[in-house]
Design brief:
Helices cover about 45% and strands about 10% of the residues. By secondary structure, it is α/β, with parallel strands linked by helices.
Length: about 850
């Protein structure tokens, strides 16, 4: 049983809380399966879909996004692949099918009957046979228990069983709750009281009472997990959090036991049962999908998915081709990223950075840009001023290595500022206490009406400001109790690092890795801006999904400021010089923040900017203003704005469901020197990571990029992919009816399952898709042998490529090479880049 439960747990993706909401690949744990095999596997016990409907591809074809050459190439590629997933149709027949399906507007995906599905829960089977609605009823019941148990301060009345595990809390509450008995499952309280005290034992007993053969335990349990996918993902997160903290959490098992208990009680009450034995093929040891058993409609849609990817690939490589020669002809002795520039900006690899980088370089040849992971290689936990709880500022793949305390940095020459910080902390705590008291008055059954009557006028300005989308009249909670002048002094400090094992040697090693990863080890401009990013929205529970994923769903400001402070440190620079990295005294690192909603760039810690760099600072400030305006102009059409003021208004409008498009339409990651992509309009669809193999003879930097940033980009790509192809299962519905539950998640309406993915408004504008689901294309400018070494060393990377979850192209010696699922390379013909044939 333990082995089965571990397998079930692995197949359930996690969802992070709203405050740390980051992209998670829902298919990460099944990437050891071929793409179509994984689709078959999921559809054995759920209605999951991994492919868009035919009319979607018909629209792409008739709009010229896919051409006949792309379809022909896809057919030949799939025909020759080890999985032989090409359709039975000829090219001419496929074209005719697409022309016949030209309805103009693709149908919005909806939950369709899955004729391939074998396993259903007892409640689902009963609903199918009798027309009842037990499955949603049971989902609502479980949702109420989970909402109360995991509440993080939203509820006025706390659950008395929060100190227990989920299963134990449910068992305690269900024995006194008559609701499900009133709805028709008699004697349920007594049924629950006789269940074992631990969830694993309860699952075993329930499986036996259901007469489920051991051969299909895993499939049946996965069916139950997928009947409440949102709460399953949340309890999987609890399991992972427990492991990170060093203790075992069994809440996912508890949820499965809860869900099965309702079905067993329903079955015994109504005498309705399922013949599980009939589902097992003769002589089969388990239920396992066979890759070849894919109907022609699925093969056709899979071929068209590949054709769409090839269409984008054709366009991308065609745009990069004019710059390809720069990789060969560039003087390698003069190859540093910051060479001969007044300023060099290092942005996150986020696709939203592509536009602002291109705009910055276009307004001045004296500005260069680079791409690096948005946490800037600083694996920290950030503790805001006066708080105890730390904020993870690292990608989901990593664990923080140390904590950094926010502090008030006193102005230079101020000898009386030492007492300012304790006072600010005290004021912050006072403001927070007052806010809690006001919230209690607003929600109290006794005082809520009288409170509104007596204080309603006070809120008029705030209500008007938020309704009209004027400048936000609400204060940032981060600056509670801090004056306007002091807010500019709040900064990450270095105090306490040595006690955490981060002495001078460790800090120097971290600085070296940062500079090597950014391609800055030989030549340095006078100003290097480390530019993190964050978003600005109102009334948006999923705001963290628009912030920096590499910083754990938070603003990249703390990481950028800490990194700049680290690299400006004189002792660090002295140590770096001993290992061959000489940072001149004339170089200053400056922290910046790119607001992805308004495209404004602001700078921090200006008090530490030397007077000698004031001219350069004024220059980049002016250039950033121009670049921001150009970037907003490019984005306006995508947001249906006619003027800049309309776009800016979205950041302060609490009714706005599309303040920005986030990472919608992401399609590729380019791992190469900037000279390959400089001046090329990639339309905000590409993650851009700086990399030059000439400075990485051992391949360590490439290995880091392919196993961390590339994987994170793939996760983001898969989250958007899943939310688009199956918004019912992997999306989060309509933003306008979202309700926050327990401060950690959202429900669609007032009940049902926990929502996990992206809302419909994040991928669709009401008329057309703004995200086109394609598997990520990774373009790496490096020798194939270096790339092969990384693939062979890391099984997870190999699985993604061999099983069709990720596409890869190498740029070597002025030629493009495609990586195949059989682990071989094939050169892409030059004529394909321009004609698609």
């Amino acid at each position: 049983m333990k082995v089965v439960l571990r397998q079930v747990q692995k197949a359930v993706p996690a969802v992070w809380p709203l405050k740390d909401y980051v992209a998670i690949n829902p298919f990460a744990e099944i990437s050891n399966r071929n793409f179509l095999n994984a689709r078959n596997y999921l559809r054995l016990f759920s209605d999951t879909e991994l492919l868009m409907p035919l009319d979607y591809f018909a629209k792409l074809f008739n709009e010229g996004e896919i051409n006949s050459g792309d379809i022909h190439t896809a057919i030949e590629e799939l025909k020759d692949s080890i999985f032989n997933s090409a359709p039975e149709n000829s090219l001419e027949e496929i074209i005719q099918i697409l022309q016949d399906n030209n309805s103009g507007k693709p149908e919005v995906p909806r939950m369709l009957e899955n004729s391939e599905r074998l396993i259903f829960t007892i409640a689902e089977s009963m609903d199918r046979c009798t027309g009842s609605e037990w499955n949603p009823v049971i989902c609502d019941e479980i949702s109420k228990y989970c909402s109360g148990h995991y509440d993080d301060g939203q509820a006025s009345w706390e659950s008395p069983w929060k100190n227990l595990t989920l299963y134990q809390a449910w068992k305690s509450a269900a024995q006194i709750n008559r609701n499900i008995e009133i709805l028709g499952i008699s004697r349920f309280r007594k049924f629950v009281s006789h269940l074992p005290e631990v969830p694993e034992a309860a699952i075993l007993e329930l499986l036996n009472r259901m007469n489920v053969p051991e051969k299909i335990w895993e499939s049946v349990l996965l069916c139950y997990a997928n009947s409440i996918p949102g709460w399953s993902s949340w309890t999987r997160y609890q399991v992972d959090s427990g492991q990170r903290s060093g203790f075992e959490n069994s809440d996912l098992n508890g949820l499965l036991a809860m869900r099965m208990a309702y079905d067993v009680a329903l079955s015994e009450t109504t005498a309705f049962s399922v013949d599980w034995t009939s589902l097992i093929p003769v002589n089969a040891s388990s239920l396992e999908p066979e890759t070849l058993k894919v109907n022609n409609d699925v093969k056709l849609r899979y071929t068209l998915l590949r054709a769409a990817e090839l269409g984008y690939q054709r366009e991308l490589l065609g745009r990069l081709t004019p710059n390809k020669k720069r990789l060969e002809s560039f003087d390698q002795s003069n190859v540093e990223a910051g060479q001969q520039k007044v300023a060099h900006f290092v942005f996150c690899i986020d696709v939203r950075s592509e536009r602002i980088r291109r705009s910055l370089e276009s307004v001045s040849p004296e500005i260069g840009t680079g791409g690096f992971a948005g946490f800037f290689g600083i694996p920290l936990e950030y503790v805001p001023l006066g708080e105890v709880a730390a904020i993870r500022q690292v990608p989901a793949l990593l664990e923080p290595s140390f904590q950094v305390q926010e502090s008030l940095a006193p102005p230079a020459g101020c000898h009386t500022c030492g007492s300012a910080e304790p006072k600010a902390v005290k004021n912050k705590q006072l403001v927070r206490s007052l806010r809690i008291a006001i919230k209690n008055l607003q929600s109290s059954a006794i005082s809520c009406f009288s409170f509104v009557e007596t204080s309603g006028l006070y809120y008029i300005q705030s209500l008007l400001g938020r309704t009209m989308g004027w400048k936000s009249v609400g204060s940032d909670a981060r600056f509670d109790g801090v004056s306007s002048a002091q807010s500019r002094q709040l900064a990450p400090g270095f105090d306490g690092l040595e006690s955490q094992g981060m002495g001078l040697a460790e800090q120097t090693h971290m600085a070296k890795n940062i500079l090597s990863g950014m391609g800055l080890t030989k030549t340095f401009p006078r100003l290097i801006v480390l530019c993190g990013h964050g978003s600005q929205t109102e009334n948006n529970p999923l705001k963290a999904g628009l912030d920096c994923g590499a910083c754990g769903g938070h603003s990249g400001e703390p990481n950028a400021r800490f990194a700049a402070k680290l690299l400006n440190s004189y002792p660090i620079r002295c140590e770096l010089s001993k290992i061959g990295i000489e940072i001149p005294e004339s170089t200053h690192f400056l922290a910046g923040l790119h607001n992805t909603t308004t495209d404004a760039i602001t700078f921090m810690d200006l008090a530490e900017l030397p007077d000698s760099h004031q001219t350069e600072y004024e220059f980049i400030t002016e250039m950033c203003t121009l670049a921001s305006e150009f970037t907003r102009g490019e984005r306006m059409k995508d947001l249906s704005c006619n003027k800049t003021s309309q776009l800016l208004r979205k950041s302060n409008d609490w009714s706005e469901v599309r303040p920005e498009w986030g990472l919608a339409n992401n399609a590729s990651i380019v791992i190469a020197p900037r000279r390959l992509t400089r001046t090329v309009n990639l339309e905000g669809r590409a993650f851009l990571h700086e990399y030059d193999f000439n400075h990485d003879p051992g391949g360590e930097i490439l290995e880091t990029i392919m196993t961390a940033p590339m994987i994170v980009a793939h996760w983001i790509n898969m989250q958007y992919y899943a939310s688009t192809v199956d918004p019912i299962r992997y999306g989060s519905g309509n933003k306008t009816i979202h309700n926050v539950v327990g401060r950690f998640g959202i429900l669609s309406g007032n009940g049902g399952d926990l929502m996990t993915g992206l809302p419909w408004q994040s991928i669709h504008d009401g008329q057309n898709y703004q995200h086109h689901p394609q598997r990520l294309l990774s373009v790496i400018a490096a020798p194939k042998i270096m790339i092969d070494r990384v693939i062979q060393k890391h099984e997870n990377v190999s699985d993604l490529l061999a099983n069709g979850w990720l596409n890869l192209i190498a740029v070597e010696d002025g030629k493009y090479f495609q990586y195949s699922q059989d682990h071989t390379w094939s050169e892409i013909p030059e004529n394909y880049n321009s004609t698609g044939k």
